[in-house]
Amino acid sequence: MLEELKRAEAEALEELPAVADGQALDAWRVRHLGKKSALKRALAGLGRLSPEERPAAGREANRAQQRLEAAFERRREELERAALEVSLAAEALDVTLPGRRPRRGRLHPATHTLRRIAAIWAEMGFQVYRSREVETDELNFQLLNFPPFHPAREMQDTFFTTTPDVILRTHTSPGQIHAMRERCPEPIRVILPGMCYRYEQITARSEIQFNQVEGLAVGPGIHMSDLKGTLTDFARRMFGAGTRTRFRCSHFPFTEPSAEMDIECFLCGGAGCRVCKHAGWLEILGCGMVHPVVLANGGYDPQRFSGFAFGMGPERIAMLRHDIQDIRSFWANDLRFLEQF
Amino acid sequence: MRVPLGWVREYVEIGLPVRELARKLTFAGLEVEAVDYLGLPEPAGDERPECKVTGVAWEPSLVVVGELVEVEPHPDADRLVVARVNDGEGVRTSVSGAPNLAPLAGTGPLAEPLKVAVARPGARLVDPGQRGRRLKRLEPATIRGVESRLMICSEKELGLSEAHEGVLVLDADAPPAGTPLAEAFGDVVLDIAITPNIVRNASILGVAREIAALTGATLEPPSTAVEAGGPPVAEKVTIEIRQPELNPRFTATLLEGAAIGPSPFWLRHRLLLAGMRPISNVVDVTNYVMLELGQPLHAFDYDALARRAGGTPKIITRLPEAGERLTTLDGEERRLDEFTVLVADTAGALSIGGIMGGADSEVSDATVNVLLEAAAWNFLNIRRTVLSQQLDSEAGYRFSRGVHPAMAPRANLRAIELMRRLAGGEVAAGMVDVAPLPPPEVVVTLPQAEITRALGVEIPRDEVVGILEALEFGVETEGEGEGAVLTVTVPDHRLDVGQGAVGVADLVEEIARVWGYERIPETQIHDAMPPQHDNRALELEERCRDLLAAMGLQEVVSYRLTTPEREAAALRPGAEPDPRPYVELQNPISSERRVMRHALLPSVLEVAAANARHRDSLALFEIGPVYLPRAGEPLPEEPGRLALVLAGALSDGGWDDGGDGARPADLYDLKGVLEALAADLHLPPLEFERGRHEAFHPGRAAAVRLADEPLGELGELHPQVRDGYGLPFERVVAAELDLERLLAAAPERFAVQPVSAFPPVVEDLAFVVGEAIAAADVERSIADAAGGLLRDVSLFDLYRGDQLGDGLKSLAFRLTYQAEDRTLTDGEVAELRREIVAAVAAATGGRLRE
After folding, report:
1. Strand pairing category for B640-647 and B618-625
2. Prediction ipTM score
3. Does B591 touch chain A (CB under 8 A)?
4. pLDDT per residue over B544-583, tens digit each?
5. What phi and psi, each to the nearest 5 degrees, are found at residue A136?
6. Pick among B33, B589, B596, B614 to test the A interface (most A CBs inside 10 A)
7. Separation of alpha carbons A184 and A21, rounded Å
8. Cβ–Cβ contacts within 10 Å for residue B44, how many?
9. B29 and A250 in contact by Cβ < 8 A?
């Protein structure tokens, strides 16, 4: 009987590698482990053995059954793994087909630039302060130390409205007066972003409307050295950690001393390129110490308070950063332009 | 302002290379915009010029002084002559067509050789046949059988001007033949941008003074000594000033027996380099001294004045009489404003004071006696006149920025003596000088500590004094160190330094710019941080932008200037136009941009139309102000608005579904965007009701309300409006909302609902209602009846069909119930359902669809 058992097991194990799918494996199981299998028959025949032979034969029969079941299990796993591999292979994708991008909107480049500028200033403690666009001549000019018919007004070609002494603001500077009058006698650190208007021909380089970001710091102990330090910090955040700045004397009626700040060209590192017209420097903003007349018009005693102010054009900065050739692109709103931001 | 350095050198030594000098001036506030080398070569190796650099080099071996010894007619051409010129190496022939050589032809050897500029073959000079400065190499030529071995140069060929009519004639005392022209006359011209506060530097002397202060050199101003001999000028002319506040000073000198003629080359050369056209010695001197000192002058024909007066002329400066007119030198008859100051005599107006002369009394070639005016004018009034008359002149430019009255006598004396030397004659003794309103001497008390307070750096007292004195301020000091106090007297060539705190700021700028902005350290603000202020409106506005962009809408920013017609294009044809007034420009740059907008939607629709040519779907929004004039107020309201436009599919079709998986947006997509926006801002739910708006389809428009306040309108564009914009979509949906009201409703904070540990019960209920019943009413009845256990209710199906019958529709809602503290029982849910069904039936007549 043991012989019979061994033969049946050997036969079963020999057949197993040829079993190629689940169905065949089930058939194998019925054949070799089922009720009519040689193994089961052998087990059923145990009763016919002598009591002495019975335990050893029984043990052997059980072991044979365990070995066949284990072999069955191994084969089943092998077949499953093989089947999975076949189906995975069949499901392979062409990963070079285009991805499906979620449709999303974007912010206008002017918004992006304004936000970036505002975020940097916010970290330096300058909050946004906004004021109106249609202004009085008094706020836009006179209180900023441009008396009527003052030649400095020539630097700012103005849109006049049909209401006498009402104009479209030519710069965000009237916000300086609004902010000072509202906050006096508190110290001030604000930036004043917003749309300004100038009577200009619309060309690739000039627009009738443009954003400006003005900045104003007023306090009991603010020096021109602070202006240089603070604006240089800003330039390094905006244009890169190594950015160098330089300050040239200039003139604005509402600041004195006044300066223009240049930064070393961030495209060529100062070596000279098309964008910086081979000078290595880019003119970025105008600035200066708040003029005593302006401080006084804002309610601050110029003997006790001082301050600095600066103004920059975010569209110009965006043009430099993104190599935009034509300022008209901003308000033309061509989606093929806007969607690149 | 074009500043020839050769001229500047007359008053100050320049010890710096041009590039360094330009840099110093630029940093001190005199921005050098361009450098023009005229004759001298550009320095080699300047690969990083900080401004525009141009030039025409006169090669020393090829362009030299020549001596014209004889002119002969060309044997074969009437219009040409053959000149014989010594170029230092011998006498050579030169064929020329210059009209100023023609009269000399055939007159035999010249008694006195004529000095000219000649070029030898190979020289690279300006091509006279082209505009501007295109260089061309000179080739030897034989012209009509006569060999031309030299070229006698015109101004144009040398780069000095556009004039190419005749050859340039040098002065008799020019260096001898063969001298390189560059050595004798080569120069460099700096083009300096003059900001309105430093018009004193719109002069050679002004720039020389700056250079002296910046480099430590000594300034030597020109002499004002006059060699006079005639009878006193006071006997020849009287002056009356009627408006001293507009004309604080008027001076006059007289040159008798002058011979009008061309100026010598040295003077013409300087005028040309400075960009002015030489005219005649007398006129050129007025321009020369204006450029030199910054004080404009005006020359009258004295005999013309005497004729008009019928005796001794009397100059009167006054405001015009009613209706008075004047024909100015440019030939224009001008209507004068009531503020125009005239220089007149007893016979009438002569010129517009400080701006432009009149035709009647101008010097001409026949003038013998010259009355020379130098006066001072109120700069604001001059600028007002310049603006009103639209009259640009060199004099008006300077006077409109402020010329100190003390400059008038200096310039007058300087000019009359120069005129005498150039035109001959005799200067009448003295000067008539009427100065009824002398400007106060400006003295500023400048504590040393104020300089430190402004700049954040201590500049030693002696350096401060040195800087101010170099700029010709008078300085007295008291005390030492930070305690020192400077008493500073402003020199009488400048009007830009004020009194008190303003004067201190003015002086601090002078000190800082000469000491060097680059030497001021970079520091951090030491003041305490100011108190922080709430900025909610801005934060919410920015959040709104982010939410809309996240929902797939592209932000646009459009022009805020438009026209009423463009705004009306967003209304159906025949609609009543917007009756509200606009903020309207008095001086629009274009008729297409003449009012400030009332609404955002028309601009966004224009953007949609412009993009529709290359897009099959659009999702746009804009956030920004509109401008609404208020009765009785000069300034308009500027409330914020939000406009949205959707057209075409909101999502892209794929490459594997034939591209048609996308459904075009309709009213409910736009409504969904607004609802999502409101939900994300934690606003109370928006309410929508049938609306009417002239932009929209009458049956597809809604009014949006928020907390019982109107918020705006949305709808599907009226087909005629859509077609008016040329929008190639079946449907375009759009909205315009009051942004401020929307954002004002956003709560400062919001509480979250606890997440219940007990399972929700979801139940679908469909109600059959009449067509006229609004879905929102059914939903409201459900919500009211279900009470606090209802977590969510949403419409998931709308059905119409034969099974229901005409005039009926089925609205299927999915209801979610949930309790926070227990699992709901079937009994509770059944009870809720009964209440809901009863409530819907009562409110809308709807019955549950089984």
Report:
1. antiparallel
2. 0.90
3. no
4. 999 999 999 999 999 999 999 999 999 999 999 889 999 9
5. -90, 155
6. B589
7. 88
8. 6
9. yes
